[in-house]
């Protein structure tokens, strides 16, 4: 077996990680022949609970799990890491204004960005799942000036997978028949899942469905509000599906996206599709050799344009707010 890849995970005692860590340790990220070393970061009061999770990891005796280290100091936990999954974040609590939420997360992601900048391996890739994911990724990126900006992504793969599942159900086909789905914009209620560029069994999905009312009044709100529907049904937010999406995003980033298809990922905008630079926004993306490129020249109709613009405007507002707070 080769040298272990060091994978940092934050929020390691939380509910997403209760699924994520076991899959990482079992080889779901890099395959059965690549050992991983887990570096788990938590806040001090959660370290005791995290010790219990590590006991369970030990008890699985995963052949691909080379080592586990835990701690509450990002400068130690991130030392030499190749991949970082930033899952832990400060949730919005009752009475919290948006500025309070951005400041609380700003404190976390400025510190983690600086620590990654100082101690991570040269090939570090950083994926932010913790919300507000796009803007937290922007904060980490801006606080890590020595790490190339393209190494910072935020997660919209869960939204992408939700959109595939909804479209497949509507078309009466297996999920494998759906290709070229795109989530544009922010991982928030303004996100825009695009069926106009998607395909079902090689046919244009919007033309095949031929039901604009379903797209507008059913599909888009169902995908965008799926997180709230899961909270209403389960009593807590999506965890296993978020862990799955976090693995799939990082796996495709490292090992490449499937041939003949693309994925959705929130990446630093290069101005493609009129999305201004300076924000981390979701695009259709192809990955190969550890790097990503935005799929170019897709048709953006007026309906799509208005929705992409609205989500991008929200991201610009968030970026302006964290700039004003001195976080970036
Ligand atoms: P939990 O509240 O169960 O766990 C979060 C954990 O993060 C806690 O154990 C907490 O102690 C830890 N934490 C807080 N500050 C930390 C810090 N500075 N360093 C290290 N750890 C820290 O939340 P969970 O359900 O696991 O969700 C985690 C995040 O994912 C939340 O922000 C959530 O909103 C976000 N999500 C993002 C999704 C996406 O698609 N991008 C979907 C799922 C999820 O809603």
TrEMBL record:
Annotated Lactate/malate dehydrogenase N-terminal domain residues: 5-149
Molecular function as annotated in GO: L-malate dehydrogenase (NAD+) activity
Keyword Transferase included in the entry's annotation: no
Alphabetized UniProt keyword annotations: NAD, Oxidoreductase, Tricarboxylic acid cycle
Swiss-Prot/TrEMBL GO biological process terms: malate metabolic process; tricarboxylic acid cycle
Entry binding sites for substrate: 92, 98, 131, 162
Record: residues binding NAD(+): 11-17, 105, 112, 129-131
Active site per the UniProt annotation: 187
Ribonucleoprotein found in the keyword field: no
EC number(s) reported in the record: 1.1.1.37
Lactate/malate dehydrogenase C-terminal domain span: 156-323
Annotated InterPro entries: L-lactate/malate_DH (IPR001557), Lactate/malate_DH_C (IPR022383), Lactate/malate_DH_N (IPR001236), Lactate_DH/Glyco_Ohase_4_C (IPR015955), Malate_DH_AS (IPR001252), Malate_DH_type2 (IPR010945), NAD(P)-bd_dom_sf (IPR036291)
Catalytic activity: (S)-malate + NAD(+) = oxaloacetate + NADH + H(+)
Pfam families: Ldh_1_C (PF02866), Ldh_1_N (PF00056)
Superkingdom classification of source: Bacteria
Sequence similarity: Belongs to the LDH/MDH superfamily. MDH type 2 family.
Functional summary from the UniProt entry: Catalyzes the reversible oxidation of malate to oxaloacetate.
NCBIfam families: MalateDH-SF1 (TIGR01759), PRK05442.1 (NF003916)
Identification of the protein by name: Malate dehydrogenase
